[in-house]
């Protein structure tokens, strides 16, 4: 096992990228900023990405809010344009009105399916996935003050921090 100085030095030589689309309440952006701080990652929007340049990164996170039970179309369209890779590591993240798991597994576990399938078909290895609740005022929810007010909250951000540290540790130990 590497000590903290060795892990810090080794992680500084790795390049991390977060591809993010977050606009409504910036829920997913809040999570991405936590990831970026832990990983020392750049955050870019899909429009800022030149697909071939993703090869320059050791790990790429792809995330957005969930719209109609899937990631935003700009993230999905970018995934379609990515070149074929061999064993490039990636992770998927999102915020949503309903959280993946905890009683709604059959419905919400599908949130990442389309993006996951696109990335796998391009040769990516999905190392992990993250989802938490986000404040949602879409459609009729706006008339009742929304769903999940105050989310992501401090606990969600702490979970995001732990998630990022686990990914960093696992990537460095490999």
What is the average per-residue confidence, as pLDDT, rounded to a whole number? 81
CATH homologous superfamily annotation: Flavodoxin domain
Task: Identify the CATH class.
Answer: Alpha Beta
What is the string of helix and strand elements?
HEHEEEHEHHEH
CATH topology: Rossmann fold
Distance between the termini: 11 Å
Number of strands: 6
Low-confidence stretches: 1-10, 102-108
The gross shape turns out to be globular
- Tally of alpha and pi helices: 6
Any idea what the CATH architecture is?
A: 3-Layer(aba) Sandwich
For the report, how would you describe the main beta sheet? 6 strands, mixed
Strand content: 15-25%
Helix content: 25-40%
Number of separate structural domains = 1
Write a structural description:
There is one protein chain. This protein has 174 residues and is an alpha/beta fold. It has one domain (4-173): Flavodoxin domain (Rossmann fold, 3-Layer(aba) Sandwich), CATH 3.40.50.360. It has helices at 4-12, 27-39, 73-81, 105-108, 113-121, 154-173; strands at residues 16-21, 42-44, 59-67, 70-71, 88-96, 124-133. Strands 1, 2, 3, 4, 5 and 6 form a six-stranded mixed β-sheet that branches. A hairpin with a 2-residue loop joins strand 3 (59-67) and strand 4 (70-71). The longest helix has 20 residues, at 154-173. The radius of gyration is 16 Å and the shape is globular. The protein starts with a helix and ends with a helix.
